[in-house]
Amino acid sequence: MRLIMLGAPGAGKGTQAARVAAQLSIPHISTGDIFRANLKNGTELGLKAKEYMDAGKLVPDELTCDLVADRLQQSDCGGGFILDGFPRTIPQAEALDKVLEKLGVSIDYAVDIDVPDEAIVNRMSGRRACVGCGATYHIAFNPPKVEGVCDKCGAKLILRDDDKPETVQTRLSVYHDQTQPLIDFYKKKDKLVQVDGTMPMDDVFAAILNVIGK
Ligand code: ADP
Ligand code: ADP
Ligand code: ZN
Questions:
Q1: Cβ 31 under 6 angstroms from ligand 1
Q2: Which atom of ligand 1 is nearest to the CA of 31?
Q3: Is residue 35 lining ligand 1, measured as CB closer than 6 Å?
């Protein structure tokens, strides 16, 4: 199964992509996680991406598309994958189409997790991310067993710089301008499925499995 997760920042793409990936035994590919891992390792890509991420802007397509193209050609993607946070622009979606065409495959579904802007700021201010493994929690909706400590790896949990309310507003307007048009893009291709992302996490997960026929 080849899936794309669409949705505003904070809609629950990462949370659900991790669960779907585990359920279907396919790799979870998050461009945000790849950029953050690069930053942690001090690579040039990480340092370049940081400027944009901190400002709530998108990292330029030139830095993003090749990275995903390389990742999709690795052998673990042969049986499918779930893309989380890519594509985020129409040119990225077109670049993805080209790579998949070259590989002789296509997307099965683009899953849009629909959450209104009003609910997003709350989600982001309560999100906590693990500095070790990238797992995410929410202080109210999905708290770790021990406050401030990752259940999975024991590392520290932090509020991401770009999850502060001022940056979240910018990210939301970038989403509406540049990413939301992808909903129509995939609708026209007859690949779009939508779920109500305001439901509890387990219900959103069940709804996703249902719309992708699993
Ligand atoms: P969220 O899941 O909350 O939207 P991500 O971890 O997906 O956050 O992304 C964090 C930041 O990384 C984005 O705000 C953007 O700066 C950058 N980023 C991630 N994916 C892409 C992409 N496909 N194109 C451009 N920038 C990206
Ligand atoms: P995205 O990858 O789309 O930016 P995340 O999966 O990181 O979103 O979720 C954003 C925040 O909202 C996290 O703190 C997460 O724990 C929480 N969250 C995710 N799904 C739900 C849900 N259905 N109900 C309440 N909170 C949620
Ligand atoms: Zn962790």
A1: yes
A2: 20
A3: yes
| Residue 48 tokens, joined | 């370049």
Which CATH number among 3.30.470.10, 3.40.50.1260, 3.40.50.300, 1.10.10.10 corresponds to the domain 2-119+170-211? 3.40.50.300
DSSP 3-state of 28: strand
Decide if 88 is catalytic: yes
Cα–ligand 2 centroid distance for 85 (angstroms): 13
CA distance 40 to 20: 26
Q: Kindly state the DSSP code that residue 59 receives in the 8-state scheme.
A: P
Residue 160: active-site member: yes
Supply the pLDDT for residue 188.
98
For 168-179, the pLDDT digits (tens) are: 999 999 999 999
88-100: pLDDT as tens digits: 999 999 999 999 9
